[in-house]
Task: inverse folding
């Protein structure tokens, strides 16, 4: 019992001394506030280099998105191209050489119109033959062009980030094949049968025998249909080239998203006839067109 009371007295005495010390220290800090603030500031300045050094030493290094190296090796993309006188679709198989250079193989099928070509319709109906259909007066062939080539693509703007717009140029050269399909018209034929005029409508391509009818608007009832003549194709080999500038969204992404504009040229050893030549305008062995191209695809290793 005596030990317990002695312990309590000593404990209370210690707490009173601690409170008194804290109180005196607090009064000193308040009384010498400016001097205390100066010492605290000096202490922080002394510690600052150590804190900075500690942050530089122990802070994990941030991983950047600098992708100047080759991320992918291969590229496959599809082109959807509109040009001055037609359209085309293509397949590109690319090999990524460096972060800013790609070579590729190109395979394309396109459709070409003559700039003089226009549609018209007589808008008449004859018996069981139904309504007349639209046709292109003077047209004698549909023209398709198959193109293949080797191409080179170069990025001009440095893209260190994964997202953003890259600008560059590309060019391509290779063989071309002109495919001509005869153009069919529905021609009117009339004959007298026992004093009555019987009218017949026949699907025909241009021949020496029907030339007068083929170029006489009063004898044409309309177009003969696109799918006629595929068993009468003719072929003319040539060469092709194109060059343009492109804008690529996410040039180093997995997916290809590019818009391109430029000039394309097809050259053949002889004149290619889409429309019948006239005294004023003849057919040519070459075609020069401006184009706008959308390219979509993906990259891989």
Result:
């Amino acid at each position: 019992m005596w030990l317990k009371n002695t312990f309590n007295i000593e404990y209370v005495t210690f707490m009173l001394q601690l409170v008194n010390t804290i109180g005196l220290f607090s009064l000193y800090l308040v009384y010498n506030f400016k001097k205390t603030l100066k010492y605290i500031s000096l202490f922080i300045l002394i510690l600052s280099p150590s804190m900075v050094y500690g942050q530089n030493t122990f802070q994990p290094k941030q991983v950047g998105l600098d992708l100047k190296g080759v991320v992918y090796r291969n590229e496959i993309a599809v082109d959807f191209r509109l040009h001055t006188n037609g359209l085309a679709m293509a397949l590109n198989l690319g090999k990524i050489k460096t972060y800013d250079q790609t070579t590729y193989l190109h395979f394309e099928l396109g459709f070409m119109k003559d700039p003089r070509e226009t549609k018209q319709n007589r808008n008449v109906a004859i018996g069981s033959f139904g309504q007349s259909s639209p046709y292109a007066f003077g047209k004698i062939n549909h023209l398709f062009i198959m193109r293949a080539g080797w191409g080179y693509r170069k990025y001009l703007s440095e893209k260190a980030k994964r997202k953003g717009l890259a600008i560059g140029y590309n060019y391509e050269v290779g063989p071309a094949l002109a495919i001509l399909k005869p153009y069919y018209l529905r021609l009117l034929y009339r004959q007298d049968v026992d004093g009555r005029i019987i009218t017949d409508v026949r699907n025909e391509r241009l021949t020496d025998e029907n030339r007068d009818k083929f170029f006489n608007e009063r004898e044409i009832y309309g177009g003969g249909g696109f799918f006629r003549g595929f068993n009468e194709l003719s072929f003319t080999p040539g060469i092709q080239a194109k060059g343009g500038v492109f804008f690529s969204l996410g040039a180093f992404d997995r997916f290809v998203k590019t818009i391109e504009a430029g000039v394309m040229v097809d050259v053949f050893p002889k004149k290619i006839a889409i429309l019948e030549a006239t005294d004023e305008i003849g057919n040519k062995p070459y075609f020069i067109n401006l184009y706008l191209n959308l390219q979509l695809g993906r990259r891989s290793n």
